[in-house]
Amino acid sequence: MSRILIIDDEPSIQDVLGDILRDEGYEVLLAQDGLEGLRLLKTEPVDIVFLDVWLPGKGGIDILAEIKSEWTDVEVVIISGHATVETAVRAIKLGAYDYLEKPLDLGRVVTIARNALQLEALRRENAALRQGQFLEDDMIGETEAMHRIREVVGQSAPSDSRVMILGENGTGKELVARMIHSRSRRSNRPFVEVNCAAIPDNLIESELFGHEKGAFTGAVARRRGKFEVADSGTLFLDEVADMSLEAQAKVLRAVQEMTFERVGGEDQIKVDVRIISATNKDIRKEVEEGRFREDLYFRLNVIPLSVPPLRERQDDLPALMDYFHNNLKKGHNDVSPPDFSNEAMKLLTEYFWPGNIRELKNFIERVTILVDEAEVTEETARYYLGEAGSRPFSDSSQREYDGMKLGEARDLFEKRLVERRLEANGYNIAKTAQAMGVYPSNLHGKIKKYGIEIKK
Ligand SMILES: Nc1ncnc2c1ncn2[C@@H]1O[C@H](COP(=O)(O)OP(=O)(O)OP(=O)(O)O)[C@@H](O)[C@H]1O
Ligand SMILES: [Mg+2]
Predict the structure, then answer these.
(1) Most CB atoms within 10 A, among 92, 204, 241, 243?
(2) CB-CB neighbours of 164 under 10 Å
(3) Residue 449: helix, strand or coil by DSSP?
(4) One domain, residues 159 and 299
(5) 357 lines ligand 1 (CB under 6 A)
């Protein structure tokens, strides 16, 4: 139901306007003056304001300016008994939707309310569309794990239940969160993301809950927090395990009661927000070791969803590669997808993919744009995997040890490790020894034992 706030000190106007709008099926809130109106706006979701320009205390035009700067998508209709052209023009310039004269023409009141609501809905939809542009990728993958994820997304999206998404870096946690939002009844409302790891501890409270002007040095104006911006939509708490315990306590209360105060403020702000959280940490361990509040964990983890690392769903690799190729082709007409040799494909399927899908996407982009040969060889593939390409490969590195005695395997592993670490440290013995936690003399001994070549 749409909500309309009437700010007018004349009881007769409140009655007449209130009655007709209620008859039309709107919920009506009343305020005697501008300040009361602003107070209500802070705590109640409102779609349209009918505002008298001639108000006791702070004038209507000032209130209009404040409303439009704070609540940009609330439409304001000005009412005036002493209609002057100047006031009307000024009001419209300040962002008023329309202008009504007393005595009120009730037919016009109804039309204006209807049109203003339509405009507001349209604006919200556009905002949602603009956000949707970030949802550039479809979710690709036909492995069991991916089907399971789609199933859980489908089941949990329509309800308001809280979902906690677990998975390594770049596995697609944010993509999953956006999918849940876009399939929920909140889809044309905001999807607001907060990266809890990126915000310094001392700012997180104000980032989440907003602050009043003057709440702390630098708070030059009132600001709405993410919880408020996400009202009636979805709030995505990304990297949620990286929040300080202090911030967790505040979030717990907000999550439980859907009520909070801005920093430096006293008003209770009520919101309706669906919360999706994500982390790449082992959150149960964080709970066990006292770094994450158990009560908050239970609140957020109503529906757990694990996104598997790419190395555990290698069967999806070809489809993902094709998909990223094709997307690139849309952007650059002249690129043709290179073919990968069998050896190159084998390399990619055995590779560990520490950066998961994000790494694969970057890799395909580099290869597609930079490689001229018709076929990508294993060597080229290894080259474009970059530094990471020289890290141990999951399966192949294990298979190498098959059939070896423990001593032999241990020596081979040690040799490889020393080689890699030396290379990573530019063959600086002191630096490598320190990084590996051994004495330089000890490292020298191993270099000699394994006949490792010191380059440069
Ligand atoms: N199944 C998939 N199909 C196609 N593209 C995907 C898939 N999963 C992820 N992507 C793409 O891979 C990139 C990384 O995904 P996303 O940002 O969702 O990962 P994340 O888990 O949130 O990563 P991080 O932990 O680093 O924040 C994005 O560009 C996303 O669109
Ligand atoms: Mg992410």
Answers:
(1) 243
(2) 22
(3) helix
(4) yes
(5) yes
Domain boundary among 130, 157, 190: 130
Q: Which domain holds residue 86?
A: 3-130
Nearest-atom number in ligand 1 for the CA of 167 is: 21
Instruction: Tell me the sheet residues that pair with 193.
Output: 236
Q: How far is CA 224 from CA 72, 161, 169, 301, in A?
A: 12, 24, 30, 26
Q: Please report the pLDDT score of residue 395 as a whole number.
A: 46
Q: How many domains does the chain have?
A: 4
Give tens-digit pLDDT for 380-415.
888 888 655 555 454 445 556 667 778 888 888 899
Helix (H) / strand (E) element for 108: namely helix 106-132
In-domain check, residue 56? yes
- Cα torsion through 146, 151, 153, 157, rounded to 10: 170
**CB–CB of 82/54 below 8 Å?**
yes
User: Helices in 337-439 by DSSP H: which ranges?
Assistant: 342-350, 356-370, 378-384, 394-399, 406-424, 429-436
CA of 391 from ligand 2 middle (Å) equals 24
The encoded tokens of residue 116 equal 């203003």
DSSP state of 48: E
What does the pLDDT read at residue 396? 47
Query: Does any ligand 1 atom lie closer than 6 A to the CB of residue 167?
Result: yes
Q: Please indicate, yes or no, if residue 344 is contained in any of the structural domains.
A: yes
User: What's the pLDDT band for 86 if we cut at 50, 70, 90?
Assistant: confident
Query: From the CA of 237, which ligand is nearest?
Result: 2
Residues 246, 148 share a domain: yes
CATH number of 166's domain: 3.40.50.300
- In a shared domain, residues 346 and 278: no
The upper half-sphere exposure of residue 327, i.e. CA atoms within 13 Å in the direction of its Cβ, equals 14
Q: Are residues 64 and 114 part of one domain?
A: yes
Closest CA to 189 of 132, 138, 113: 132
Asked if residue 263 lies in contact with residue 218, where contact means CB atoms within 8 angstroms, the answer is no
Q: Using the 3D structure, point to which of 359, 378, 394 is the last residue of a domain.
A: 394
Find out whether the beta carbon of 137 lies less than 6 Å from any atom of ligand 1.
yes
CA–CA dist 147, 150 (Å, integer): 5
- Specify whether 183 is located in the same domain as 224: yes
* DSSP 8-state symbol, 82: S
Global model pTM greater than 0.90: no
Q: Which two tokens stand for residue 351?
A: 């590779």
